[in-house]
Amino acid sequence: MDILDLTTPTHHNNANVVEGIEETPNDTIKHWVPLNVPEDMKPIVNSVWDKPETALDMYEKYAEKAGFVVRKASVKYRKDRTVSNKYYVCNKEGQPKKVQAIDTLLNDVLESSRNRRNSNYAITGCDARIKLKNKKGTDFWVLYEFEEKHNHPMIDERKKHLSKPCRKLLFEDQVFIQNVSTNNIGATKAYRLRAAMNGGYQNVRGTVDDYKNTKAAINLFVGNRDAQMLVNKLRNRSVCLPEFSFDYKCDKDELVCLFFADETSKCNYKEFGDVIAFDATYSTNK
After folding, report:
1. Residues 11-66 pLDDT 10s
2. Buried b vs exposed e over 227-236: b needs ≥16 C-beta within 10 Å?
3. Shared-domain flag, residues 140 and 255
4. Which member of 66, 75, 145, 237 has the greatest number of CB atoms within 10 A?
5. Using one digit for the tens of pLDDT, what is the confidence trace for 99-120?
6. On the CB side of 286, how many CA atoms lie within 13 Å of its CA?
7. Does 186 lie in the same domain as 106?
8. Which of 158, 183, 198 is the C-terminal boundary of a domain?
């Protein structure tokens, strides 16, 4: 497939192509073709894949470099109910739904938000896609069609890190969030620290909200096991520090009180007598 040169006027199939605009006798059709993708990253027609997920992973990497987002489309079945075809398309594929005009000043409309459309992107009917066909009787898939042209601009290079695939945090990002949280660094500061370490926010996967959601998910996973984690941590500390002492009390398998004292606390008690340290968040945290 020919690649449009968006900087130099050319002729393509008897149509004038200037800056990504094809002028036809009847109307003007705009097409955008990614020019910043290496040839070895582009899908190859008639290439064979061991499974469709591998081809999808290849297409998603191409899309991330090009500046658009991929989603799964329709699936075709044979008469024996085995899958014969799979399509992966640009997320702007399809026809936009008709949305009824809403007067947001009406109280009854404000009370019911079900009629409002909440969408982060616009459907433009983009035809960019790849099509896979299964070789009957085998586990091999053939990529038999690749449409490179889009009817919309690509995502700006400065905003690629805000696209849905790039916002997905990797396992190493999740480990980083958990590790810094053990040093009383919250999700917001963790995001800023990650940006400073990587040379800018554009080099960080996700946003502040993604970091907050990940931290909340980790806390939810920990659940009510955090009490046992605290006891284990203090027990290990008492093994490493002979002057460290701690004790705790449980009521029906629930931690109700905890006492610990290190060498500094014991020295203060010896010099000044009774010392009380009270947590200001007592009985306020779950």
Report:
1. 334 333 333 444 444 556 778 888 888 989 999 999 999 999 999 999 999 998 88
2. eeeeeeebee
3. no
4. 66
5. 655 555 555 544 555 555 555 5
6. 7
7. no
8. 158
